[in-house]
Structures are given as C-alpha cells and as structure tokens.
Amino acid sequence: MLTTALLLTTLATAPAPSLEMPAPLAAPVAPAPKAKEHGVDAIVLPLVSYNSDLGFTYGGVAGAYLYAPGHAPYRHAIAIQTLFTSRGQQNHYLRYDGPRLIGPLRLEMRLEYRRELRSPFYGAGNVSAQDFHGNENQERFNYTKGSPGAWFRLRGRPWGDNHPFQSYVGYGWRYTQVSPFDASVLQDLKPVGYEGGATGQLTAGVLWDTRDNESDPVRGGVEELSLRVSGSATGSRYQYGGVTLSERRFWQLGSRVVLAQRLTLDALFGEVPFFEWVNTGGVTFTEGIGGMSSVRGIERNRFAGNIKAFSNTEVRVRAFSFNLFGAPVYAGGVGFVDVGRVWHPDTVDGPWWKWHPGVGAGLRVARRAAVVRFDWAMSPETLRHRVYLNFGHMF
C-alpha cells in the first residue's frame, strides 16, 4: 500500500511519471520486486504541503492503476486531484497516463481548472517594479486569474526502448480570465493579453536522454529541444511561438555525492500575451524567473519577459539509506545555487551582468520514484528568504 501511495503521489505531482526505480548510491540493496503484471491498485490520499509562494496547500488525490503483461510500470493510470491553498489558489485536475497505449507510444492527457485570487504580475523586463519592497500580497502586484484547460501529449522512442532518442507531439488549450485590481501594475500597463482569452498551442520536441534513472538520476543527462506555436488555426486568440533549449546533466562524485546541473533558455516571439511571459516549454513545466521551479529565494514570477534564461546547480548528498517494506529509502541533503534573468522588447533590462541569484540548502527523502524535498532559499539581492516543501526533484 505504501508503494502504491508513493507511486500515486509521483503521478499526481510530476509532469511525467517515472518508468524507472532509483536505488541508493551506497550500501547493498536487495533486488527490486518483479513488476506487477495483473490486477488493479486504487488509493485515496490527502495532500498537504507548504511553500512561500502559495502558502499552505491542502486537498486530496485519488487514483487507480491497471496492470497487464508487457506494460511497465502499468498499462493504464488515472488520477484525480482537488487542491486549495491558504492564499486563495485552486488546482483541480483529472489525468490519464498510458505508457504503451498505442504500440510503443505513451499517451498523457490532463483536464484541469486553476484559479488564483492573487496571481503575481510585476511588469516586463529584468528590472521591473522598482517600487516593490517585498509585500507580494498587495493588490498593486497581483491580479485575479481563472484558467480552465486541457492538454494531451504522445511520446515515443522510435529507435527502441533502450535508445536515448525520444520525440513527442501534443496540443494544449486554455481559456484565461483576467481581472486586474484598480491601480495595479497590470491596470496601468494594459499589455497584450489584458483582455484574456483562449490560447491553443501545438507542441513538438525531441530529447536525448542518457540518465541512469528518470526520477532520481546520479549520472548521465538529457538534452531537449521544444517548439510551440499558437494561432487562429490552433484555437488561440493570440499569434505567437516559442522555442526552448534545456540541458540537464548529472555526475556521480562519490558513493554518496551527485553534482546536478540544469541550463534553460526559452524565447517567445510574436503577439505574446503577458500571462505566457513566465512559462517555458518542454516536457517539464517551469515558470519564472522566481519561484520553486526556476530561481528559488526570489518571489514567484518576479521577473517576466519574452526571453528567459536560468541555471540551477545542486550538490546532492545521500547521507544514509535503509529498506522499507522491501524497497530502498534514502535520506540526505542538498546545497544549491540558482541564477536567472529575462530580456523583453522595448524595456530597460539592465546591464548584461544583471542576473538574479538564489542560494540555499535542503533535505531529501526518496523511495523508488517518489522524492520529497524541503528547501530553504535566500535572495542575496534582497536578503529575503523562502521555504518550499514539495514532491520530486526540481530537475
């Protein structure tokens, strides 16, 4: 039951469920049990966490797994989540995952509704909102947003399950409702997207994945090139496109130490609505600059623009490991340095060396594909600090 619960947590919180099960770097570990090939697992779990961007989160997730021979780790999986935060946000979804649904192709689908009573907006550019002094809840730097949407993606390995090359295509549609506060930055600037509306995106990408493990790697890496296009033909009110380049690399420095590095460059062009400035493309959802998925220690989405670049460096230490109900568990720590910046047309972005850093440390507990992380981070620019409790590695 615990194994199923952690697998469900991974499905519920990660962009793409892992197909591999990690093992500790040190200490002999018993072989993993043979994959289940028949039957059904189902479970309901509460979800409780906290981070400085969203406050306390609470809700629940339920899911079921259908197993069949030749389908690993399962044939079909479905999960449903309802989630609220103490800062007035909601995130509800229904998700399906079929790892080998259409021959060797993996189908992922998600229907969701998000609502934010205070969604951050500080304007465009790398030195935006000079009058912001740390109170991220004030109406001047927020607006109310509602965004029902859905997406699907087909992923495959055209040259075999063990070949590092992967490709994917997908489509996503979202309707964004925008309600600015009086005297807010959004009300003053009225950028493209101020009226809200539909955004439909066609996406395509390729990956070269040599990681030894998808959810908790210790060596190898993954390079990704992703494209996205929105226009009237895709059901979008706005005509724009984007390209994302990403590199994730992992080095095993010793029996218990891993150096992890991520580099991301994302560029948008065309009639880009302001609520897309903070989003990057690719298999893994990332937003920023600022927040627990880009530069920790900086307020969520503090800097936004058509071009974003950021780097994340982590030293992960596995302090000790043990077996729990037949599966390995490890606990350890991490130290990290994040840095990022944006560029935006017709804005003052500061000198070339004006990058925004975040530094910090954290704890990790992992069992197979499920990783629980706690991070403390600080911005050296402002000396403000933030904490994050979440599931899964940052990258």
UniProtKB/TrEMBL annotation:
Q: What is its main location?
A: membrane
Q: Which domain of life is it from?
A: Bacteria
Domain Bacterial surface antigen (D15) intervals: 125-379
Looking at the UniProt record for this protein, which Gene Ontology cellular component terms does it annotate, in alphabetical order? outer membrane
Keywords on record: Membrane
InterPro entries from the UniProt entry: Bac_surfAg_D15 (IPR000184)
> What subcellular compartments does it reside in?
Membrane
Query: Do the record's keywords include Membrane?
Result: yes
Name one matching Pfam family. Answer: Omp85
The protein, known as: Bacterial surface antigen (D15) domain-containing protein
Task: Give the organism the record lists.
Answer: Melittangium boletus DSM 14713
